Amino acid sequence: MSNILLKNATIVTLNDQNDILSRASLAISEDRIVAVGETPADFHADAIIDLSGKIVTPGLYNAHAHAAMVFARGYAEDMPLERWFNEGIWKLESALSREMVRWGVRLAMIEMIRGGVIGFADHYFYMDEVAQAVVESGMRANLAWAVFGHEGGEVGITVPETVDFVKRWQGAANGRLRAMFGPHSPYLCSDEFLARTASVAVREGIGVHIHASETAHQVQTSLAEYDMTPIELLHDRGLFETHTIVAHAIHTTPVDIAILAQSDVNVAHCPSTHLRYAMGVTPVPEMLAEGVNVALGADGAGSSVAYNLWREMRLAVVMQRQARNDPTILGGLAPLHMAARNGARALDFRSSGILAPGYQADLIIIDATQAHYQPLHSVAAALVWNTEPADVQDVMVAGRWLMRDRQLLTLDEAAILEGFSAAMAEMMSKPLGQFKKYDVGGATDQ
Amino acid sequence: MSNILLKNATIVTLNDQNDILSRASLAISEDRIVAVGETPADFHADAIIDLSGKIVTPGLYNAHAHAAMVFARGYAEDMPLERWFNEGIWKLESALSREMVRWGVRLAMIEMIRGGVIGFADHYFYMDEVAQAVVESGMRANLAWAVFGHEGGEVGITVPETVDFVKRWQGAANGRLRAMFGPHSPYLCSDEFLARTASVAVREGIGVHIHASETAHQVQTSLAEYDMTPIELLHDRGLFETHTIVAHAIHTTPVDIAILAQSDVNVAHCPSTHLRYAMGVTPVPEMLAEGVNVALGADGAGSSVAYNLWREMRLAVVMQRQARNDPTILGGLAPLHMAARNGARALDFRSSGILAPGYQADLIIIDATQAHYQPLHSVAAALVWNTEPADVQDVMVAGRWLMRDRQLLTLDEAAILEGFSAAMAEMMSKPLGQFKKYDVGGATDQ
């Protein structure tokens, strides 16, 4: 099917004017949007879909994910970050297998697509498995193979191997797939390793996805060792000279924010993780005011439990309102901008995230005819405050339906549940080893 | 149908031992639970329902509601509390009609039942309409007719009329309906009126549902006028000598908390409203530690936008973790206790809120076979952090199904959507009047 016409929809464009169109049309030809608002006279639709009472928005992006970590969902709850890492997650990860990543990422994709997430920036292991799953699912993704770069060598995968991984997948699946470097963080990578990664990244034109400034302790340690904050260090070592996603960036100074803005760094803000683990309040309003592209991430299910970007939007708002005692902050469509348009930019999909002619046909349809949407005084409030994953009726990426009327069209849900269940049983049957204990810091460290 | 057997379920009892039973049975005879765990040998089931992969919990209670206020959903967003009241809600309410309450509360009931809410403590106007809707819907409710008790007389309804209302409905619908007094708040009721309400309440054995200590400003005003906090004032004037629900109770002192505990007062904590309007952080952990019964409320849709108690649970947790920098607080089933068991107690339904023999068959069934629940390492985490309204498959109150497989059995959804839409159009067609401007205080007052 090449030409699709959506009509009578409420269309939330997320364009610069923040236009919300009523009873409007959206014309799609192949993978692209050709018109928004009025239907062009010369547009011959192969299919016309009436969307009365429905809302169309750009699809959501999960800008910081460890998607396959669904295996850790609810595994080590209600403990301080340090214990959660060392006694929970890293112990469980000692039993990680390629099988688990294969099925884990597919399970995650079911949850993401069903909730209107069309793309994710993944940062994990066995990433060829993830890439293959992205190809099959029809989603977009920007994939980084996580590397713990210690003195004297990398753990798991080397820099040249990472380069091979990136080259293998960059631009695959008609451009739905992108790949980048994934050095874990300044606290789990040596200074030398970070500088080497940066130099290869710049030379080869490869982006970087990294964690930084998750706890005040990490910042103090960095200041003690380098006389620089983690953000200043990454900047100094050249990591920001390429397209970069910094996950978390919670404990950041005004100088850090100026660096992030000037270097066009993308920040992936992960409210569920930050709030559940009491990690602190990212200065998101200051970042946005300075022009930093702040997107939203659902992180790994071990810390966030759910891959629900609607929830991340709401938590991003209430976190700031509580911290600043200001009920006007991040109002209207601001949270959706972060989740959709800023997310597309963070993942480096420059033709996605806005509903406008020439952009990719990447969109989701919300069923606002349901009781809990009535009355529709504010489309923005309906999206940000009423919408849950189950309200997403349809999902389209590059003109292809990934979900229609809540039915997944690219993933075999029953087979994935079965495959995941077997991989999970295998994982839990293994004796759990002990990862090296890392000092990550965190609230109420014990 | 008189005897129902649920089998192979995960049963979250919320009993004093916090028992979670696996592959367990729950036997229901008429409106009561007769066995939990093993099926009694002499139990002859008329219907046997296999719940493999499903979770059964007590139904949720919305302990502070203005249910019919769905008409204000998304109406006046992102503004300080004072402006929201005076320029938004109270202006819109000048066009309130009996018709709107009739349809508004029914629309709210669709949303509540669909999200697993089986009862609500309502505080509003035209309450006979609400009572009639409760009778029809099969829900439980404890209804209070809101009164603004000024010097020289009440607005809208008098104390004797409220007594008549209570007597008309107390214990109706086989005990599903309860009723109480609804003086608005210390700041909108005169001292004399509060004392008179208390004396009638005690004499007639009628409970009280009231707002208090929503803002620091209200506390300051009360201290200036009476040399007592609002909680101390209510206690002093005798309001706590009967069954009482205090909504909000945000700005409370250790002395206030001791009073609330000693007087067995129920606090309705409303996280969505408190966070969206930056009203402050209720000392919930201190209240729970002192033995105060803290339940959760979704308030009116004008301030909360949604009647989603799962969201209220999560927000209750993250609010405290952020404020106290402590990721261990309110873990496990604590949020569900507040939403279900504590809610039942707040509404004075003493045989609800726990799954145990002799208790009412008030329960909900969660479909945990879905992808976003896998793997089920923690039932508590699955309920608190994974569950959204659409995951509730079935709802039972007093042994009667209100929803089966997402189909509402007591409410005509299409007719309600139509009736509400007409009432809403009527409301918006009226010239909006101007309520008396009240000084409610609030964050960033302007």
Strand and helix map with partners:
The structure is a homodimer of 446-residue chains.
Chain A: E1 3-12, E2 20-29, E3 32-37, E4 47-50, E5 54-58, E6 60-65, H1 81-93, H2 98-114, E7 117-124, H3 127-137, E8 140-150, E9 153-155, H4 159-169, E10 177-183, H5 191-204, E11 207-212, H6 216-226, H7 230-236, E12 244-248, H8 254-262, E13 266-269, H9 271-276, H10 284-289, E14 293-296, H11 301-304, H12 309-324, H13 334-346, E15 363-367, H14 379-386, E16 392-397, E17 400-404, E18 407-408, H15 413-429
Parallel strand pairs in A: 1-4, 1-5, 6-7, 7-8, 8-10, 10-11, 11-12, 12-13, 13-14
Antiparallel strand pairs in A: 1-2, 2-3, 5-15, 8-9, 15-16, 16-17, 17-18
Radius of gyration of CA atoms of chain A, rounded to a whole number: 21 Å
Regarding CATH, which class of the largest domain in chain A? Alpha Beta
The whole-number mean of residue pLDDT values of chain A reads: 94
Major beta sheet summary of chain A = 9 strands, mixed
The CATH topology of the largest domain in chain A is given as TIM Barrel
Strand content of chain A: 15-25%
Distance, first to last CA of chain A: 59 Å
Instruction: Please state the overall shape of chain A, judged from the principal axes of the Cα atoms.
Output: globular
Which percent bin holds the helix content of chain A? 25-40%
Largest interface: A-B, 67 and 67 residues
Oligomeric state of the chains in view? homodimer
What is the annotated CATH architecture of the largest domain in chain A? Answer: Alpha-Beta Barrel
Class derived from helix and strand content of chain A: alpha/beta
